[in-house]
Amino acid sequence: MEAAETSPFASPKITAESAIHHDSAAALNDAVADAASAELAEILSATSPMERMLLKASAGAGKSYALKRLVVEAAQHPRAARVAITAFTNKQVRPLAVSLGEALGRDAVVLLASKSAFSDVPDDVHEAVTVVQKSSEIPHDATAVIATVARFGAPGEIGRLTTHLGSGANGTAPFDVLFVDEAWQIAHHLFDKITRLAPVWVGVGDVGQLPPLEVGENPWRGDPGYNPYRAWPTDYAGDSRTWERELPAVWRPAAGHLALWRAFYPEWTSLDCVAAPGDRAIDLGKMTEDGAVVWAQVGTGIPTLLEVDGLPEPEAADVDLPLIEFAEQLIDVFFEAGAALVSAGYDVDVPGRPTGTWDTSRPRGNHQDPLITILATRNQSVDDATDVVERLRTKHDITERDLVASTVDSWQGQTNGITIAVHPLNGASELDEFNSAFGRLAVACTRATHGLLMLARPGLDQLLAEAPARSGTPFGEPGTRQLPRQTHERILATFARAAIDVSSDD
What we know:
single chain; 506 residues; alpha/beta; 8-stranded parallel beta sheet; 6-stranded parallel beta sheet; 15 helices; 30% helix; globular
């Protein structure tokens, strides 16, 4: 790793500056949440012509808080008897259940689980809400029912819910509002099965996440404008009966990541960062100069790309054990030095306002999110990364709160302090639907609060310069891209970059 010392990082070609941070940035989201709250109240009061609401969020915008507020207000509205909340996976609905149970009370919130999932429901969910396996077990006075889209969409389920609970205040459907978390992850053919749950739909989510399936040719031979495998909100963009807004501030990233975030959401009217420069940092601990070269750069909060040459040949372009083992060396240095993540404290009563205090997350602490997450695109590569994680956990006596590994796809919606990711185009000879997917790169790049280190072998620039042109598509990403390679170039331009040759280390 000595080679890194002689290879300084070049500054990003594209940077972003903003005068809006802290409570001023947080207030921008609050204003949109206020507007959404007012609109939903008017819809329920039948004074608005709108039938649907789509609240669009960039990664780490704090959409969960906005969603919770809307659910609580709808459940308490005099013209709403009960509401339904859904998402694609159990790991999404369970935290929602806990959050809503805390807000509405345990007896008011019900999690409808499948028989197979019931035994896996964590104790904290059982403590927060009522958990049932059958719709006939739902208490009649429950005001919020939560289930995955597959559970709500089971054959005959809507009929059973209506028979047991009766209709909501609307007089026909069992619920008055259907809330959909991470709405852009749910394919149209799945959502079609649950639309009769309620006459009003509220979709909230990150439009930059991976779509339900990679968007290709429309397999539907009926209506050419309908694709059952596309995320359902895409049907309602610009619809006269659909209220749409964007949350214009992000809570998750360090200020140095703002240019990267804006590159993923180029058509956003505005996008600002709650964290100001200096609000996030990495305490390098007892790290030696050699190791500090890389980690000091990552700690600036500017996205960092390190191209590593001189490694043994990989098994395949996207199954690169030598590159994963190089990441192991870097992570070993981090934990050996006792490094930690430092964050500015914000006021509880005035969101985003600095208190002048500092929070430090150290290995073996009780921090909620992992300190470091290793991300790769292929399962086999993540298996290799998992081996790395197990070795380092044993060596440094650390836990899953400190270090984890995951596929990019599985890490959607998650947050961590530092991301170390293998670039999806690493070692590729061409752009294909998998490695050039906008959403896969977006998820890999937007999980971190403190630092992003992208690893790749040399050749990304050459690949993007020489790869055959591929037609772009507006679906599956926030805005029309001209060509996939231009999209990747736009993102790479926001990274600080360096190249090293480690062949002398052998």
